[in-house]
Specification:
The protein has about 110 residues and is mainly β. It has strands at about 1-5, 10, 15-25, 30-40, 45-50, 55-60, 65-70, 75-80, 90-95, 100-105, 110-114. The protein is built from no helices and eleven strands. The strands form two sheets. Strands 2, 4, 5, 6, 9, 10 and 11 form a seven-stranded mixed beta sheet that branches.
Amino acid sequence: VQLQASGGGFVQAGGSLNLTCRAVGNTFVSYYMGWYRQAPGKQRELVAGISSGFTTTYTDSVKGRFIISRDNAKNMVNLQMTSLKPEDTAVYYCNVRSFSEDYWGRGTLVTVSS
């Protein structure tokens, strides 16, 4: 199983980025999918998650700015990020998991300048 993440980059405050993660090697319709991030000197945190039933959850700091979605036919999970702030700067990781399995992508860097 591989998680292929893309879409990170450099953007000015107020800008937008779209992260995409494609899962290869299995069918993940019943899995929980999410995006985590880790800023320098900080612990990794859940940014947004989406269940197999399309229930979404967001950390408070991104509510109203980020939208997570999934495309089960393509085994993909997306994170639309708008109104980006410098404090959103971090390495973003895609995660796909079930009760017995846990897969992580390599991470994609998002840098937001002030």
